[in-house]
Amino acid sequence: MPAFRCLLSAWVVVLCSVSAPIEVRADFGYRMSLTLDRTRVGESGTENTTLANFPMLVSVQLPELRTQANGGHVVSAEGHDIVFRALDTTTCGGDAVCTLDHELESYEPATGRLVAWVRVPSVNTNLAGTDTVVYLYYGNSEITSSTQRPQAVWGSAYEAVWHMSQDPSGTAPQILDSTSNGRHGTSVGSMTSGDLVACQVQQCLDFDDVNDYIDTGDYMSGLSALSVEAWVYRVGSGDDRVISKASSVFPDSNYIFSLGVTDTGRLRGRLATGGASAATFTGVTTMSQNTWYHVAMSWDGTDLSLFLNGEREVTGDKSGTLSSNTQPVVIGNNDAVPNARYWGGLLDEVRLGNVGKSGDYLKTSYNNQSSPSTFHAVGAEEDAPQFAVGFAWARAYREGAGTRVAWQVAHETDNLGFAVWKKRTRGWVRLGKDLIASHSLRSSRTVGYAATDYEFVDDGPVSLRAPYAIEAVDARGRSSWHGPVPVSDAPASVRAEPGRAPTPTLSQLRGVWSAFPPRRRRAPVGGAPTVLAQAGPPHALAVSIEDTGVHRLSGAALLAQGLPVGTPLEAFALAYRGAPVPLLLEDDGDGLLSSRDALLFWGEHRPTLWSAQTVFALTWRVGGARVKTRLAPAPEGAQPVEEGSSVWAHAPKSLYLAALNNGPRDNFVGPLIGTNGVVVPLTLPDRVAERPSHIRIELQGVSLVPHDVELRADDEVVGTTLFEGRSVAVAELSLPAQATLSLRTRGGPADMVAISSVRVTYARAARPTPGGTVLEVPSGSAVALAAGGKAARLWLLTNDEVTELRAPASGSVVLPGQGVHEVVLWEGPVPHEPALGVPAPYRADTQTELLIIAPAAFHETLGPYVALREAQGLRVALTTPQAIYDAYASGHKDPEAIRAALEATFLAREWGFVLLVGDGHFDPLDHLGKGLPDLIPVPTRNARGLETAYDDYYADFDGDGRPNVALGRLPVQDVEQLAVVLETLRRFEATDTNAWTDETLMLTGDDEQIDLGALGEGFKTAMGTANEHISFAGDPVLARGSLLEALSRPARLITYFGHGSVETWGRQNLFSSKEAATLVRETGPPSVFALLTCLNGFFHDLFSRSLAESLLTAPHGPAVAVWASTGMTDPVVQQRLSEALARQVNRSQARRLGDAIRAARAELPVSDTSLSFTLLGDPSLLLPWVPAGAEAPAPSPEPPHLPPLTELPPVPASPPPATDLPASPPPAADPPFGGCSSAGGGPGSPLWLLVVSWLWRARRRPS
Predict the structure, then answer these.
(1) Alpha-carbon distance 634 to 642, whole Å?
(2) Among 939, 435, 940, which Cα is nearest to 658's?
(3) Domain count, the chain
(4) Around Cβ 867, how many Cβ atoms within 10 Å?
């Protein structure tokens, strides 16, 4: 009966199964690659490309593999959290990703010495062309029991495997067999603990050549094939046996089999079949004493061969069936009395098999075991990506003639989708070939935050005795299993609803290119470039375009902007970021501007990550570049060309992937490509049908597995592209005329790739269009300017020059010069009319102490606030984002312009305050069609697990992770929200200093494993004031009541430690953004909030409103400012940040909140967690309880000494036991241990526990 494979962890219920591919499902902090040198796999001249099921020796000693207690990254002192994986279908033997069976022969936690045997399903030989790569994963606090599977490493082809590394003087049987056969050996003779010595692989036994041997019992009779392997080190000179099964009666011909060394030092094997005397085979090489050799004998039922160090010594015929007797198999002797053949020397890694081993196998074994370091190269340590899917509940119920399987996920991180499995008599069977699309991909994000429901309908026969299981597959192809889910009759509350459809699959999600929403065109907002950086010319207009083509500025439009009639046309100049752009003046004859005149120019659209507009500067002072004209008539009889080369480019933007830590690159991609494929529609205007096209496709890896993308023209494969993980690949091919292009992946369900861009070079008919047809045409070609009764115009584009070619008589022009020309064929009227605006550039004033950047629509509402700050003695400047773009980015929306403006204003003294007024998000170009305003752009950074907001980038002038000025944002979307926030601020500062209580409030989450109160003790001590502590642990109803009551009372500072997400606190969602938005503080001033958890400050999301935003913008709410994280956080850094902030807001001389936060951050080293905290609020907020004479402190130049991590509260050594997944929903939302990355960020979540592992990891590299 097949062995069941089952793993239960405290956070993931793993299904026990016979046939489903169950493996270790937990997440690991680290991994390193092992690259197997293919030149050391197989015999010389092998004809095989792979070697199957090879037990590879991994023998390394690395400081990273020490335990955390010894400065390394392994958690378990027994090595339980060391596992091996492969990430490609070849190595895994079919699966895209697999966990490899392994056995630890030894692991030393203090030194990082590891000796392991790993079964690799397929290893490439030199004929394969590429090396095999496997990965060693480690650093997982969730794994508390052994992950070894030695009986799977040494499968049915092995009769016995002895590592010979046990003490021979222990309790019998001392020498353990690693196979499932249990052929353990008992030491005989005078063997002691001293006979266990260092050997070829690890440790082995020293035999005395007198009376030492190992008795392993009676077996091996009647086999049809056999193999023997061992490492030998011979010190004796007699005729000695390595291993044998012989008769107790002399002579030697009564051996069933034996392998030994003759007294002349040659390898000798004997084997008997059919009851006849044993045949003898002797090698040709003389073996030296005191030298290690790998010896082997292989018999396949027909031929027998001896091998020495992987080389074939002798081969001879030997057919039949192995003879039988009842004598034991003996190591180090022949057990033939009185003619014993005791071994003198060392024996290591002795193996018996029931199949003959190939020369490829034995040569590879020798290469691997003789020199592991040259057989597999060890890569550098890298962080292993995390995977978290938190299941809340699952159920399956009969519905009509089928079964509906439904489940709810509390959160999901980096999740591709789900597969549903059903238990049948032959084992677990997967239903459907495609993955069910995860909510994170359907909603165009990588991290899912809120509870999400999924459904799947099984149309097969209904059986109440056939349970289901749900497999979640992440971006690396790893799985977590949840179930079993029993089937029941449908309860009344969940009867079938008409028209309800199951969750879409990935192929449905990705299958239709046109299903993704087009980018909305926004109305031009005006704002123009300036020729000089800070002081624009006295007369300038911003000219904004959103299309490439010929553009026309009418005289009427220019006059409408205030230009005087009669302005000389020759005075006009057009520039793009300071570079001249040629103008063609259409004059009514007097050379002076009037409504009948126009300016024409060729404008190339250059969109950025932040704006769909390309902005030019139009001035009228000294003139500029002009479109030249030239007569170039074609010779009489010249035949005009009918086509030219044209380019069509498209970059679809339908999915946003936050997990792409790709720096300044766009995180938007197009359709997903999976195993079902996707057709790429090509919109090629005026294509010449019979010509092929050249296509360049940029692909973005979505999942983290190796990618294998197949490109097809109709049904013919025309190319493949191989690349790794979330990298970018480029595929180029020639597409036949009229062929349809499609792409699909071949690496299994986890192989997911997205299209970033498509560029097609094709033959286009030489026909003019109103906006302009761009073609490449060889010089010397004639081009017709009249066709079909229409007159066309031709502009020649050469570098920065534009020349109009004319031909008054022939109707055709000839292209001059050499090479290929880029030309524009166009006909009037020109369809493109640019938008115009008047710039008002910002001018930096280095005396400014508070700079407020807000859209013009907010300025009137900000008036009283500005007056308040000026009355307090601050020098205030109020400007718009567009004014800054005008001054520092030639009118283009660009975060770098804001950073430059801040640096020009504040760098001289590195003190001051910046208030950004306006919301922002990750989709400023509205690719996803949400239509939300992006008032002030949000800089982003590569953070742990995702790309996230980083407003402090604006204020960090030198890039050291420490803002040079205090910065905050009011994330408001309209005037009404702004008025609410400003009124809260007024209430706070209007409170008399003496009226403030000393009370602070510390809230802690509902975690059962970690003492959050203890984590907050440092904060309470640092505050040094009356401090109330409310824990959410226990009855959720009572906890919720205590929380709401406490939030209604005034306090200087309110902190929260624990589990959290974008919108919630606590495992049981005890407090959410929806409740925060309606919370009212009836009496007393509002409070400053510090939320010490993950993602509460994720304000730039389009699909949810963060808890920090909801607290801040609640009418008459409890929060005047919120300091929260936009990413994943480490509890150690959280704790220290809270203590530093408490010291600064309560006892320092910082009168304003921004100064206190800067000083608090200066106490700690820069880390991913510290960079993630952002202030949603006013950094110039006056702290009324600080004496009026206080002055702003300067940040510490160096962080002070930090207490060692050993002084922190202890972390539980192991999690509590797992419980089964509930088969139906609980009465209230109670997701089990939601992850920090989505539904929660604090204690009680899988990611919290990963963070705890990061905490211990910090012993070596502190945050």
Answers:
(1) 15
(2) 940
(3) 8
(4) 11
Chosen domain end from 735, 764, 793: 764
Sign of the dihedral defined by the CA atoms of residues 699, 703, 708, 714, in that order: negative
Q: Rounded CA gap, 742 and 739, in Å?
A: 10
Q: Which two tokens stand for residue 649?
A: 């480019």
In this prediction, residue 205 carries a pLDDT of: 97
The pLDDT value given to residue 477: 67
Nearest to 733 by CA among 715, 752, 712, 748: 712
Q: Which two tokens stand for residue 1257?
A: 């990891």
Say if residue 654 is in the same domain as residue 733: yes
Closest CA to 1070 of 1182, 1228, 933, 1215: 1228
Tokens of 57: 């020796």
> Is there a domain that residue 366 lies in?
no
pLDDT at 384: 62
Q: 801 and 858: one domain?
A: no
The CATH number assigned to the domain holding 265 equals: 2.60.120.200
Within a domain: residue 12?
no
CA-closest candidate to residue 1176, choices 1103, 1101, 1129, 1109: 1109
**Rounded to the nearest 5 degrees, what angle is found at the Cα of 296, between the Cα atoms of 293 and 300?**
165
Cα–Cα dist 1107/1077, whole Å: 9
Q: For residue 926, give every residue at least 6 positions away whose Cβ sits within 8 Å of its Cβ, in sequence order, or none.
A: 519, 520, 522, 932
Half-sphere exposure of 487 (CA within 13 A, CB side): 19
pTM of the model: 0.64
Q: Residue 1254: its pLDDT value, please? A: 28
**Could you tell me the residue range of the domain that residue 910 belongs to?**
850-955
pLDDT tens column, 505-545: 444 433 334 322 223 322 222 222 222 233 333 468 999 99
Are the C-beta atoms of residues 1133 and 1105 closer than 8 Å to each other? no
Q: How distant, in Å, are the alpha carbons of 118, 314, 797, 834 from that of 581?
A: 66, 83, 12, 15
Give the residue ranges of the chain where pLDDT is below 70. Answer: 1-27, 94-97, 248-253, 336-339, 384-388, 390, 410-414, 439-451, 475-478, 490-539, 787-790, 809-810, 993-998, 1006-1016, 1024-1026, 1147-1150, 1186-1263
- CA 93/CA 140 separation, integer angstroms: 26
Distances (CA, A) of 524 to 592, 803, 1051: 28, 30, 46
Buried b / exposed e along 736-766 (16+ C-beta atoms within 10 A): eeebebbbbbebbbbbbbbbbbbbbbbbbbb
* Chain centre to alpha carbon of residue 6: 28
Q: Could you tell me if 275 and 323 lie in one domain?
A: yes
If one counts every other C-beta atom within 10 angstroms of the C-beta of residue 75, the result is: 25
**Whether residue 738 is found in the same domain as residue 791:** no
Q: Give one DSSP letter per residue of 1000-1041, joined into a string.
A: EEEEE---SSS-HHHHTHHHHHHH-S-EEEEE--S-HHHHHH
Integer Cα distance of 819 and 1196 in angstroms:
63
Exposure string of 1135-1157, with b = 16+ CB inside 10 Å and e = fewer, is: bbbbbbbbbbbbebebbbbbbbb
Instruction: Quote the CA–CA distance of 809 and 817 in Å, as a whole number.
Output: 22
- Three-state helix/strand/coil letters over 907-955: CCCCCCEEEEECCCCCCCCCCCCCCCCCCCCCCEEEECCEEEECHHHHH
What pLDDT is recorded for position 98?
77
In a domain? residue 134? yes
Name the 3-class secondary structure at 601. strand
Examine residue 839 and say whether the peptide bond preceding it is cis (omega within 30 degrees of 0): no
pLDDT of res. 664:
75
Instruction: Note the helical H segments in 328-478.
Output: 359-370, 372-375, 439-442
Answer whether the bond into residue 173 is a cis peptide, omega within 30°: yes
Alpha-carbon span 1144 to 552, nearest angstrom: 59
| Residue 523: per-residue pLDDT | 29
Residue 172 to residue 217: CA distance in whole angstroms: 13
